[in-house]
């Protein structure tokens, strides 16, 4: 579906979507929703924000010490009672980090998806946007096409797998310049949406307006209240009833 304008509104810091029936999840409900799930979060620091929010909110979940950089990962958290595993891994180069992990820990999203068996227990979430704004759109199309090929193969072997794409955020005034702007980001979002439009079972979570119309100052890393609403939307798709 195309995202209408407006796509929703905030009421008392809760996002009311015009696109889907989102639910609000308590900590206990998050644990129940993710019971027996393996969640693979891939992408940039905006999906790492989702990992960190789930780590703080899901009861009993603990981060494992993988001896990696907190900002660069890879990261993993587990909750034994409900058999929950959450991974986060940054996408492969190009990246813009002050410090990066060993090259052996840098995996392309397409390669990681190829190595996941999938199934009803698997939830795959990825975003691929913010670090690509400095590169030609043709390069981005080529990279997204590879991810598409891997997703098609995954859903062919394991159609019950939940596959979710998170759109890019608005960037905020601090990074509005000729090299990185919301206009560039919007073009990448459009390419990603069109590339996956014809694949049944792939969910596109468009957070563009969620990050632009809140009273908080726009930031490439949205504040906790926005992250909470984004994760509620994620879980609404994982557990629609």
Q: Could you characterize the architecture of this molecule?
A:
The protein has 241 residues and is α/β, with parallel strands linked by helices. It has a single domain, classed as Rossmann fold (3-Layer(aba) Sandwich), CATH 3.40.50. Helices cover 32% and strands 17% of the residues. It has 6 helices and 9 strands; from the N terminus they run E-E-H-E-H-E-E-E-H-E-H-E-H-E-H. The strands form 2 sheets. The protein has a 7-stranded mixed β-sheet with strand order 4-5-6-3-7-8-9, with helices on one face. Strands 1-2 form a two-stranded antiparallel sheet. A hairpin with a 2-residue loop joins strand 1 (8-11) and strand 2. Helix 2 packs across helix 6 (224-238). The two termini are 21 Å apart.
Given the structure, what is the number of helices?
A: 6
How many domains in all? 1
The residue-averaged pLDDT reads: 90
Helical content, roughly? 25-40%
Beta-strand content: 15-25%
- Uncertain stretches: none
* CATH evolutionary superfamily: SGNH hydrolase
SSE string, helices as H and strands as E:
EEHEHEEEHEHEHEH
The biggest sheet amounts to: 7 strands, mixed
Furnish the topology, listing elements before pairings.
Elements (H helix, E strand, L loop, with lengths): L7 E4 L2 E4 L9 H7 L4 E6 L1 H13 L4 E2 L11 E5 L4 E7 L18 H6 L7 E5 L10 H21 L4 E5 L15 H15 L5 E4 L18 H15 L3
Parallel strand pairs: 3-6, 3-7, 7-8, 8-9
Antiparallel strand pairs: 1-2, 4-5, 5-6
Helix pairs in contact: 2-6, 4-5
Pfam family, one: NXPE4_C
Organism: Sinocyclocheilus rhinocerous
Protein name: NXPE C-terminal domain-containing protein
């Amino acid at each position: 579906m195309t995202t209408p304008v407006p796509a929703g509104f905030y009421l008392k810091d809760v996002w009311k979507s015009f696109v889907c029936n989102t639910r609000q999840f308590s900590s206990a409900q998050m644990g129940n929703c993710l019971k027996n799930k393996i969640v693979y979060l891939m992408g940039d620091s905006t999906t790492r924000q989702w990992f960190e929010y789930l780590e703080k909110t899901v009861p009993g979940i603990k981060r494992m010490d993988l001896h990696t950089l907190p900002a660069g990962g890879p990261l993993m958290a587990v909750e034994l009672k409900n058999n929950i595993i959450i991974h986060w891994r940054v996408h492969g180069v190009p990246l813009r980090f002050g410090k990066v992990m060993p090259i052996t820990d840098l995996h392309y999203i397409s390669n990681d998806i190829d190595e996941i068996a999938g199934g009803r227990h698997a939830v795959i979430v990825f975003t691929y946007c913010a670090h690509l704004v400095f590169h030609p759109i043709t390069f981005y199309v080529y990279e997204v096409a590879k991810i598409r090929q891997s997703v098609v193969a995954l859903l062919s072997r394991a159609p019950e797998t939940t596959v979710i794409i998170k759109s890019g955020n608005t960037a905020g005034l601090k990074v509005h310049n000729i090299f990185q702007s919301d206009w560039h980001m919007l073009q990448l979002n459009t390419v990603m949406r069109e590339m996956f439009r014809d694949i049944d079972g792939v969910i596109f979570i468009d957070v563009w307006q969620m990050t632009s119309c809140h009273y908080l100052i726009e930031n490439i890393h949205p504040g906790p209240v926005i992250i909470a609403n984004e994760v509620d939307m994620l879980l609404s798709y994982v557990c629609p009833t």
